[in-house]
Write a structure and sequence with these properties.
InterPro entries: Cro/C1-type_HTH (IPR001387), DUF5753 (IPR043917), Lambda_DNA-bd_dom_sf (IPR010982)
CATH topology of the largest domain: Endonuclease, Chain A
Pfam families: DUF5753 (PF19054), HTH_31 (PF13560)
CATH class of the largest domain: Alpha Beta
Radius of gyration: 22 Å
CATH architecture of the largest domain: 2-Layer Sandwich
Number of helices: 11
Order of helices and strands: HHHHHHEHHEHEEEEHH
Organism: Geodermatophilus obscurus (strain ATCC 25078 / DSM 43160 / JCM 3152 / CCUG 61914 / KCC A-0152 / KCTC 9177 / NBRC 13315 / NRRL B-3577 / G-20)
Largest sheet: 6 strands, mixed
Protein name: Transcriptional regulator, XRE family
Strand content: 5-15%
Distance between the termini: 42 Å
Shape: elongated
Number of strands: 6
Number of domains: 2
Oligomer: single chain
Structural class: alpha/beta
GO molecular function: DNA binding
């Protein structure tokens, strides 16, 4: 059984902005409901993101609140109805609500900036590497579950190959390039790692991918809580969501101040890291040594 789907951070932003527009005009929810022929509970559900909003209902609210055209267009792009159903809906019975939201957010993002402290970001992992990440747990997932998760990860990576691809900028801690990805004491780990390193060097050549390595001698990074990813929305054109992804939980941060802090931390990481050319050279040397 999976969790009931929950509103994404961008849907919550839409709900929050609609409430701010109403209160800015000193309108009570009952007044809005009366003018539009709705129930007060409908206004409340929309403003708390407990229910979605249709395109027609959104237009009626925007007209009532006299929202300028440019702001209205932005709010329409945030609406759930503006985002078509995607491939992930086929996995709805097995994806957690958090993971489904993460995939939807990535699909609606123009850019992603990420720091990998232990492993490469999922969008950069080879299928063999993903498989080892999934297996490195006490839970011992069944083979069909492992392959399903590998398939979902590969579908996530399609955002880098789209007609208008996501712009990905990743900083990897150097330790990521040395950590074997297989059963201890076997040759599997070195083989999987070599394939992963070769793929990183190859994908770094794409015009929409920038890859940097934070070397050991760069000193302590500006973050101590591990990996993080900052998403830039296609709707807003600005960084608006940070997510922290691990095996059992996905956490989202959408407060403006916190998103800004992670963005500044990423900027500092890029300044501490090797430049892209030197980073790829290091990756290729380490791949050859495997």
């Amino acid at each position: 059984m999976v969790d009931r789907d929950t509103p994404s951070v961008r849907e919550r932003r839409l709900a929050r902005e609609l409430r701010q527009l109403r209160t800015g005009l000193h309108l009570h929810a009952k007044e809005v409901a009366a003018r539009l022929g709705w129930s007060p509970s409908k206004v409340s559900r929309i403003e708390t993101a407990r229910t979605g909003i249709t395109a027609d209902d959104l237009d009626r609210l925007l007209e009532l609140y006299r929202v300028p055209d440019d702001h209205a267009d932005l709010l329409r792009r945030l609406a759930p109805s503006a985002r078509p159903r995607g491939w992930w809906d086929a996995y709805a019975d097995t994806l957690s609500a958090g993971y489904a939201n993460l995939i939807r957010l990535e699909a609606g993002s123009r850019a992603l900036r990420c720091f990998g402290a232990l492993v490469p970001h999922a969008l950069l992992q080879t299928p063999d590497y993903v498989r080892q990440v999934v297996l490195s747990t006490w839970e011992r997932p069944a083979p069909p579950e492992v392959e399903r998760r590998v398939q979902v990860c590969r579908r996530r990576q399609e955002v880098l190959d789209a007609a208008d691809p996501m712009q990905l900028w990743a900083v990897l801690d150097e330790s990521v390039l040395h950590r074997a990805a297989g059963a201890p004491g076997t040759s599997d780990g070195a083989t999987v790692l070599r394939g992963q390193l070769e793929w990183l060097a190859e994908v770094a050549g794409r015009p929409n991918v920038t890859l940097q390595v934070l070397p050991f001698d760069a000193g302590l990074p500006p973050v101590t809580a591990g990996s993080f990813s900052v998403l830039e929305s296609r709707a807003t054109g600005t960084p608006d969501v940070v997510y922290l992804e691990n095996k059992t939980r996905i956490g989202f941060v959408d407060g403006e101040a916190e998103v800004h802090r992670y963005g500044r931390a990423f900027e500092l990481l890029t300044e501490m890291a090797l430049d892209p050319d030197a980073s790829v050279d290091l990756i290729r040397r380490l791949a050859a040594d495997q």
